[in-house]
Fold this protein.
Amino acid sequence: MLNAFGRFARSSAAALLLLATGTVAVEAQTLDAVLKRGKILVGVNIASPPFGTTDARMEPDGYDVDIARMLAKDLGVQLEIVSVTNENRIPTLLTGKADVIAATLQITPERAKSVLFTSPYGMHQSMVIGPPELKVASLADLAGKRVGVSRGSAYANILAQANIPGMQLVQFADDSANLNALVAGQVDAAGTVSYLAAELKKRYPEKGFEQKVKLTDNVYAMGVRRGDLDFQRWVNTFLFVNILNGKIGQTYEKWMGDSWKTLPPF
Amino acid sequence: MRSFGPNEMVYIILALRWTVLLATCALAGGVVFGALLTATGLARHAVARSGVTIFVQFVQGTPLLILLLLAYFGLSAIGLELGALLSSALALTLYAGAYFSTIWRGAIRAVGSGQWEGATALGLNRWLSFRLVIFPQALRMALAPTCGFTVQLIKNTSLAALVGFVELTRAGQIVSNATFQPLLAFGVVAAAYFVMCLPFTLLSEWLEHRHAHP
């Protein structure tokens, strides 16, 4: 028993250490491994429409899922969608539970320390929205306000690092909770992204929610493990070809209800 | 974006099977592991006893969420690849085992030492004393808290949603995000947990009542 406990304690400590430092052993030959396996594991957050959601038969669907389908088709392998959350998408990739993550992953220098970004495959704007009576014209005006965000999102980080005195950042588990808190008046304003702000306007026209402050352009990409350059090159090639032939643009327009714009070079 | 309809309802109800499976695995694993810990914890061997104590303290002093994350990410980091279901079941087994063993050891200790002495005086050995004299009395005391903890265990399977395992709670999150109607989605989820836990709550109450008035 003591032995078993010792083993458990040792492996727990080792695991904690690995998680803390993020120095998980990287399997460098992901491309070969995927081809040999005949199946690619793509991490998608299926609770994050329109990127990942479920269709009428409650099967995974959405922009990220469509991209994953095209990716698997071009690679000539089967697709397995690995369900991830915003918090665990990077650990899921780093521990090898997914070969690549397509999970609303905005490109940031901070994240680039732990994942290797592919070329981008879409962009939108992040912003702070609120009711018409809220007088906010710049980030500084958010002082003393309660601002909701979806935990783990890029705009949550921007707001947290903005150092606005007296602003209370309220972290919600997901977009639905965040925006419903705004509708219910539990927060004064909410950070969100353009397509969700548009959806909210459609749902609650009487509330008159409007954009208060634009935060940034969110350009998102897939992520592979650091050092996995060979596989990253393949994913980039896939993106290059399918952006050029218009397939990715069509899929984007189908899901985002917005016209495809040429992405900035990355 | 859709609104909450029959499909969404069915999706949540169907996700119930994963919660039931996870709870069943955790309960079965926890009972076996808990019995093992209880037996070791009552052994004459001092090192074995303190080993159990350290383990139980470790598990009880660690949030279940951390155990789940350790089992899911930690084990795969050291090369042991378990899926979301298996690793969650493993973490919940360790968790349930530690708590069950505390409940059961307490129940066995609560049977007075006079009972052991009496059994020995009748010429019974240690195992027979336990089986024929101590166990039936301890069982009566342990049943109600065991049922009570089972209810907690069922509800705590919801934490597996955090490693992306699509059980009842995660299904509710997915539907809530697809429909933007969290009240309805989580209302159905809450009702499902309630229906699942109610029999155990009633059983626990009934056992407690029966114990109070033998």
About this structure: The CA atoms of residues 13 and 55 of chain A lie 41 Å apart. Residues 26-124+218-256 of chain A form a domain with the D-Maltodextrin-Binding Protein; domain 2 fold (CATH 3.40.190.10).
